Records
---
Amino acid sequence: MAKKTSSTTHTKGTSGHSVVYIVGDSPLVEEYANLCADKGYSVVVDWNESPKPAPKFEGTVKVSSTTARNTAVALELTIADKEHKKKNLVTLDKALAATAPILTNSVTVAATEQATWISGKHRLVGIGALPSFSQQRIVETAPTVHTPKETVEVVQRFMQSLGKEIEVVQDRVGMVLPRILCQLVNEATFVVQEDVATPQDVDTAMKLGTNYPLGPIEWGGKIGFKHVYSVLSAIENDLSEDRYRISPLLKMLAHTGEWWKKQ
Amino acid sequence: MVKHFGIVGAGTMGSGIAQAAALSGVDVLLYDVNDTILRQALERIKYDFRKGVNRGKLTQEQMTEAFGRIHPRTKLHDLKQCEFIVEAVIEDLTVKKDLFRHLEADTKPTTILATNTSSLSVTAMASVLRVPERAVGLHFFNPAHIMKLVEVVRGERTSQETVDHTIELAKQIDKTPVVAKDTPGFIVNRVARPFYGEALRLLGENVATVEQIDRIVKEGGGFAMGPFELMDLIGIDINFAVTQSMYEQYFGEPRYRPHLIQKRMVDAGHIGRKSGQGFYKYEDKK
């Protein structure tokens, strides 16, 4: 990408390659690690999904649980496990240089709430990240009340170096795309559960009838039904509205995998 | 195989269906009570066929042949020879019930009677028939000659045989059928609700602007159109009416609750592209 030069200048580490430190949920970690490595960053992944072995990464990705002091940008990509996220953020906040920003996935927990866990509140910026969307051009970004303009600019340049643009939105649980998409998946599972139509017909209908790039059931599979469930539970808790109630079928899918195939 | 396909109502949907069917080689008996509407429909179809010829999608011969397969009719009992009849008249349950009664009296007992309704109950319509098993929903999407999808709607008393024949007919006229139980919104209008509803809520809660939400959905999610662009295209009045109808038919299910923003825009006359302004301004139309 053409914009790489300007950004690597800004975030250059002592080693010559800027270091991006990534921690969080699979498969988001893999997606972002490969993306960053592909754009020339030295990527360090803290693989904390053990006993599941770390996947094979492309190129310059290193697996290590020691936070590099020269980290230019850290990504915390945990989707829903709040305790895990908190632990990761506290560790990062202690280990990183004061100038290094942390981009934290704020789809299920608002970045502002996450900022209460650490002392370096200025460095925290929320981003919207769900599996299978890391190749898209736009990333939702949610600064908190503590985030200075300069930090948002660093995030913007970093995302530009990955070939992306940021769209600055309000810091709310569910953000924009996850809230719309997960409710589409939810409605589709209600339709299947009520025997209104088969999952295949729901997908066909939405692709041909409304020109969606994927059917909602296919999307659920790609994002992961358990992640869809996490996003919707978070919104349901946050807004206390009955419209975010999750279909029993979606719950089942989240807990057991692709259950409807066995019907 | 259906040889004679009856269509009742020569409005936008009826003529679109006729066009699609004629192109696939079925003889169409296109009925309308109003001779003027019927003539206009034929003009529209001819115009569209010519466009196809000019674009090289259709040969002159194919066009003449297809056009020759559409037979205008102004008497309902002229549809007697049809094995399959679909109605595409006004969305009014009383009108449609009346029509079904007349069709039952005027057709062979084996003829399938289908409705292109998008918002009414197929089951309620079928209830006026002596043999409700022969009634089914066949929901086309606008423009009907282009959109591949049709929803085959199984009413409470629709027979499996009727559903099977309807699926066959859909395939015969080059459509892709999906089967839905007779419930409000069927599949598409129901599953699409959150696309608009959540976008409106996000806007109402000031999470992001109209432009931002559309951009995020398109360039962050891979959709061809954003929810606000799409509402402008459909018509905010239409979208609001569909949402309201779903909400009422589901006895106030909160997932389908309309949003005040929609109503305000309708009140203001900002109903989308067709009025020159919706969520966006359209300079070319006013």
---
Amino acid sequence: MDMKRDYYEDIELFSSGTILFWTVVLLVALFAAPLILSNYHAYLFNLIMVHVIVAVGLNILVGSTGQIALGHAGFFAIGAYATVLLMTELSIPFFAALIIAAFIAAFFGFILGLPALRLEGPYLAIATLAFGLAIMHIIGHVELFGGRQGLMAPALNIGIPQLGLDWEICSEKGKYYLILSITILMTLFAVNILKTKAGRAFVAIRDSDIAAEVIGINLTIYKTLAFAVSAFYAGVAGGLFAFVLGFFDPFTFHLILSIIFLVMVVVGGLGSVMGSITGAVLITYLMYDLFKNVDEIPVVGDLMVAVSEQWLTVTGMDNFSMIGLGLVMIGIIIFEPLGIFGAWIRVKKYWKTWPF
Amino acid sequence: MAYFSIENLSISFGGLKAVNNISFNVEKNEIFSIIGPNGSGKTTIFNLISGIYHPDAGAIHMEGENLVGKSPDRVARKGIARTFQNIELFANATVMDNLMLGRHIHMKTGIFGGAFMFGKRSPAAREEVKHRERVERIIDFLELQSVRDQFVGSLAYGKRKLVEVGRALALEPKVMLMDEPSAGMNTEEKDDLTIWIGDIREDYGVTILLIEHDMNMIMGISDHVFAMNQGEKITLGTPAEVQKHPEVVKAYLGEEVIS
């Protein structure tokens, strides 16, 4: 064990030189990546990073506070619609619109948190699920939100047009840098929150709400706060997602998306920021890239195309994408219930004590 | 008026009178023990004090203020800490974090302050360090250094009991409710605990309400002992008086069979 000389070392962002080194390597790689990425891959990375933001926020609620949530596509939608509408209807600059939209999402999170004070487990799952569905149907029926036709995202101008400061981002790679910066910032916020008073209170509520109360934690405040924080994250992600897609309609934010978010968190590892990130990266990659291109793999690909044409419905290769994703989820839950992060901890422990 | 008092406290669950018209006064800085057979309503009194249950009738006063009707977190803010009979710790957090949670009511960092904890000079980091110092003193006091960074779930039973005492102490309570702190401890651990309870009273100036079954411990450290059975008071007095009381002997040892 490392010797500690200062209490600050307990809560430092980078608890050791090794971690600092690898973080720097990762950041340099991420910032240099667009030099070799194709436009399609920049788009894929953007999608992954948006999902990372949602997963990090959702994990604060599900993993750290222990409240199940199946309606995060709803907050995601609120973020997307609010950001775009604030920009187009009220000509609010991008960053202000994104932050206001995230706070609107957080407000809805707070509202949804209120019934959570009395609901637990499956009942809470159903309440949040209903919220997600309701949001999808409400925006589908209101003219302002574009109804079922959907909305088109405006040009991504991150300056302040009113002051003559224009800085328009058109390319996928430009968006990549914007989203990367915001993702890093949101991740650091989450790491810090979990190390300080509020984060500890969340964990306390998860482990024993009765003990949490008798040491002075107000359950009403902290449970609704956890909902608000995770909705804020989904709101920020939604605002960015709108510009990644460029065009979206209510069905972009369907129920399956909420479930996929939850899958990312569970597969990655409940209660860990690193787990949320790995979960989001893995699931998004599998969904959007790997299994979409199975037909290009030699032999196996051809075989699958043949099977698909012979036996499966017209959706074709998408069938395999879903089957593959399902198998990965089942595999991880069976063999590593703590998620990818749990596996990482085991490997680390093994090497620390090696060769004993 | 007494420092801490309970007046005519009653609560019933269905037809069962769990606590029936109980009153007692506790002076500042004393160790006040409650004894009685299992199911006699001792823990229910603690749950009433900490606001987990609300009484059907009666009052609970501390420093002249009525605590009845306050939620558990408000009661905690008034300076009442407690430990549980069956250990209620945060099992997936380290010993350090459990004790830091005891500091919760003394910390001010909000969600935004916490999110912006960048660098040693940020307000959140400064507050963290300040409170970690205080917690470290409690870790020293209860000799928990060796398990400081371990997860509570992996600790031995006796250690977990101690962590719970430490968490209650971190709250800087005026009154501490200890529910069978020595249950499941071996003789050596019990002896240490007895000394610590005395020290908590002396050094930290805490008034202690104690529920215990270990008679040696009770008789050794209590100033007053309150004996109860089936929700009713049997007697109240010094340890020596209570020990000789025929009803107490009866409740604990059973009645003599007269043939």
---
Amino acid sequence: MLANYGYKDGSGDYFITIDTGKCDGCGDCISACPNGVLEIVENEFDPLEGGQIAAVSEEHRKKIKYSCAPCKPTSGREKLPCISACEPNAITHSW
Amino acid sequence: MSQEYWRWKEYNWRDEKIDWKAANTITAGVDVGSVSSQAVVMTDGKLFAYSNMRTGSDSPDSARKAMDWALEGTGMKLEHIKYVVGTGYGRVNVPFAQKAITEIACHARGGNMMYGPTVRTILDMGGQDCKAIHCDERGKVTNFLMNDKCAAGTGRGMEVFADLLAVPVEEVGELSFEVDEEPEPVSSTCVVFAKSEATALLRQGWPKSKVLAAYCSAMAHRVYTLLERIGVEKDFAITGGIAKNVGVVRRLEKEVGMKPLTSKYDTQIAGAIGAALFAKALLEKSRK
């Protein structure tokens, strides 16, 4: 399943997508994120199966444009820390 | 105090033909939303009774009231219900629920029963947010997107407009078609700015119907841009209170280029139906 967290406003689309089919709940992205945007939660979207998945924390969902801004490549960085930390390639950013 | 135009009818319903005492599994779902609360009681996976009312300022109280009202006159008591699932904004505040499940999963599951297994895209236009959900033939979520950052495209926005124009909210849809030609949508999608814009149009002499047409199409467009992000796969259905507003629904179907499915069930109880279905599945799982 694709879980899109974020919003769209007058300035653009700001979504972090987590592919729950790929995410194994390892938590590598949590320690990679300098701003504490991600967290590991119970998979609420499939209550009969359960399991652990990464999600954007409630606190950051409505302001990820700003929460993620410090990492957005302005210099020679190739990949965002959360994306490089994620081995199964479950995380994508829309902007 | 004058009439409260935003107020919609609250009601309860029961299936007189069902003898609940003969049922094996009695489960319930309670959806405590930002604007409305619903309680659905199911006997062996069939809809037995439900209620739909405004959420008060006290979530646990709203959940209890909705449940009491659904059970009113049925002879059934809360203790007869074997498993209750809470959902919606106030899901953690349903004191008698065994489990809380996100409304996204519940709408997909409920939509699957209400509109049949062919439904792939569900748009839930709630009181205070708007969700676009893709699901598979079993009602499992495959993709979702939620807008809860602003009131544009929500039921509360429509209530504000009903009040401003002194038109009962349930008549807004029909009235918005009483125009000679479709006006340009209001340019602001923000409810607060749209309200100022509408006031200006009224002062310029626009009739109410034309202002409503401009607002309904702005809302339809706003929601469409949200849908566009995840795409609209066939079949398409709308749940939530706005699904009852033809002014928005028909304008949205034009943008999407697809007619939404219709259901014999009340569109506002989709989340609670899904919760009651999850309750049944979880109960059966625990009995195994």
